[in-house]
Write a structure and sequence with these properties.
The protein is mainly alpha-helical. It has three domains: 63 residues; 118 residues, no CATH class; 170 residues, no CATH class. Helix content is 79%, strand content 0%. It has 14 helices and no strands. The longest helix is centred in the last third of the chain and has 43 residues. It starts with a helix and ends with a helix.
Length: 358
C-alpha cells in the first residue's frame, strides 16, 4: 500500500512549478484538488494549466481596481512619451515607441496584483515600481536584441531622451501603491483594547506611507529640477509652480501629516472619536493630494494633445485629449471615492463597537 501511494504522488518539480504559478489565496485548495485527482504527470499538468486562466482572471477581478489600473496607465503613458507629437522624419510614431515599455510595465503591475501576498501598502507600492522598471528594461532589451539581429529598425526603441522622463513613472507608481492600501483589520479582543491596537497599527501605517510619499515626491522634485535646469523646456514656466506645490506638500506631510497620538487616559468613547477624526482627516488629505499629484499629467495632456491638435488643426487629437482629461479626472474621483467608502465603513464599525460596549 505505501509504495503505491508514493508512486501516485506528482513529481516534486512539477508540483513546485504549479504551486508557484497558482495565485496565493487559491494555492492550497487547488493543489489539494489536483493531487487528489493525480493519475499521471501529463494529466496533472494539463489540469493545472487549464485551471490557471480562470484562477488568474478571478483573482484579477478581486484585486485590481479599475481606477488604480487607469491611473497607473496614465502615469506610464505620460512618462514614456506616448502622447508626444511625432518629430519630423520620425519613422516610428511616439505612441509605438513608448507604448511597448508602457504595456510591458502595465502587464507586470497586473501580474503583481494577482500574485501579491500579504504586504504593507508602502512595500507593495515599492515592489510595484520595481516590477514596472524591470518590465520596461526587459522590453527594451528584447527590442535591442531584435535590432541587433536586423529584424526591426532602431527607431522602435525608446529614445534616450525619454529614459529620464520614464524615471518619473517609478516614484509615481510607488505613490499610487502606497496610498492605495487599507487601514488594516480590526483586532479581536476587549473593545477598548481593540481600538487601541488598531489605532497603533493605523498610526504606524500613516507614518510609513508619509515617509514613502515624501521620498517619492522628493525624487520627482529633484529629477524635475535637474531636467528643467539642464534643458529649460517650453513647459518650464508651468513646471516650477507645480514643483513649489510638491515641496509644500512634503513640508506639510513632515509637519502635520502624521496621525495624532492617542489622548492619555482616554476611555472607549474618546478613543473612538479620536480614531474616527483621524481616519477622516487622513482620507481628506489623501483625496486632496491625489489631485495635486496628477496635476502635471493634466497639463501634459492639454499641451501634447489639445493645444497641439488646435495648432495643427487635428480635430481627432483634440477629441482624444479632451476624452483623456475626462477619463483621468474620473479615475482620480473613483479612486478617492473607493477609499472614502472604505473609511466610512471603518468609522461605522468603530461607532458600532462603541454602541455595543454601551
Amino acid at each position: 500500500m505505501e509504495p503505491e501511494l508514493r508512486k501516485r504522488r506528482p513529481p516534486a518539480p512539477l508540483s513546485s512549478l504549479l504551486r508557484l504559478l497558482i495565485p496565493p489565496p487559491a494555492r492550497e485548495a487547488v493543489m489539494g484538488d489536483l493531487e487528489e485527482r493525480y493519475r499521471s504527470p501529463i494529466q496533472y499538468a494539463s489540469e493545472g494549466i487549464r485551471t490557471m486562466p480562470y484562477l488568474i482572471a478571478s483573482r484579477a477581478r478581486r484585486t485590481s481596481s479599475i481606477a488604480i489600473v487607469g491611473l497607473q496607465t496614465f502615469v506610464l503613458v505620460a512618462c514614456l512619451g506616448v502622447t508626444l507629437p511625432d518629430l519630423p522624419g520620425q519613422t516610428v510614431p511616439s505612441w509605438a515607441q513608448g507604448g511597448i515599455p508602457a504595456a510591458a510595465a502595465l502587464l507586470a503591475l497586473l501580474l503583481r496584483a494577482v500574485y501579491r501576498g500579504e504586504e504593507t501598502p508602502v512595500r507593495s507600492g515599492f515592489l510595484d515600481a520595481v516590477a514596472a522598471a524591470v518590465a520596461m528594461l526587459l522590453s527594451q532589451g528584447m527590442l535591442a536584441g531584435l535590432v541587433s539581429a536586423g529584424q526591426i529598425e532602431p527607431d522602435w526603441m525608446l529614445p534616450r531622451g525619454l529614459y529620464m522622463l520614464g524615471f518619473f513613472a517609478l516614484p509615481a507608481l510607488w505613490l499610487i501603491g502606497a496610498a492605495e492600501g487599507r487601514h488594516g483589520a480590526r483586532p479581536v479582543g476587549a473593545p477598548a483594547e481593540a481600538v487601541v491596537q488598531d489605532y497603533l497599527r493605523f498610526e504606524r501605517g500613516v507614518k510609513a506611507r508619509n515617509r514613502a510619499e515624501m521620498i517619492a515626491l522628493g525624487l520627482i522634485v529633484a529629477g524635475s529640477v535637474a531636467m528643467l535646469l539642464r534643458f529649460n523646456p517650453p513647459m518650464a514656466p508651468i513646471a516650477w509652480p507645480f514643483l513649489a506645490v510638491f515641496v509644500a506638500i512634503i513640508g506639510y506631510l513632515a509637519l502635520r501629516g502624521w496621525a495624532a497620538p492617542i489622548p492619555a487616559g482616554a476611555g472607549l468613547e474618546p478613543l473612538r472619536s479620536h480614531f474616527s477624526r483621524e481616519l477622516a482627516r487622513q482620507n481628506g488629505l489623501r483625496g486632496l493630494m491625489w489631485w495635486f499629484w496628477f496635476g502635471p499629467l493634466f497639463v501634459g495632456l492639454v499641451a501634447n494633445l489639445v493645444l497641439f491638435g488646435i495648432r495643427m488643426d487635428q480635430p481627432l487629437r483634440i477629441a482624444i485629449g479632451a476624452g483623456a482629461l475626462l477619463l483621468l479626472a474620473g479615475f482620480i474621483a473613483k479612486a478617492n471615492g473607493d477609499r472614502s467608502r472604505a473609511v466610512r465603513e471603518r468609522i461605522a464599525a468603530l461607532s458600532g463597537m462603541s454602541e455595543a460596549a454601551a
